[in-house]
Amino acid sequence: MAILFAVRDGRRVAREGRSAYLWSLLTDPDERRYLVDSGWKGVSKVFVLAFALDITYQFIEWQGLKPLQGLSTAIVLAVIPYALLRGARQPTRAPQPD
Known about the structure:
- With 98 residues, this protein is an all-alpha fold.
- The protein has one domain.
- It is built from 4 helices and no strands.
- The longest helix is centred in the middle third of the chain and has 31 residues, at 32-62.
- The mean pLDDT is 84.
């Protein structure tokens, strides 16, 4: 799911002519707030779903809860793939006519 949302949002960013997501997040302080907000909007549902599924699994399998482990699992399964794949390639721009 995180990969599908990342591809969808990456295509939208490429159409807008913006730079790659992760690169801009690290190097462009003016755009950082917008990028974090738009990234969270894109991955929040997948993050919550991954967290809920892991907590449910823990409760059924171990008869107990480990919320920090659920949090780390959700980050690994949702946030990291989203951040890496949303801007995996630099959008190409058509040459500007003179």
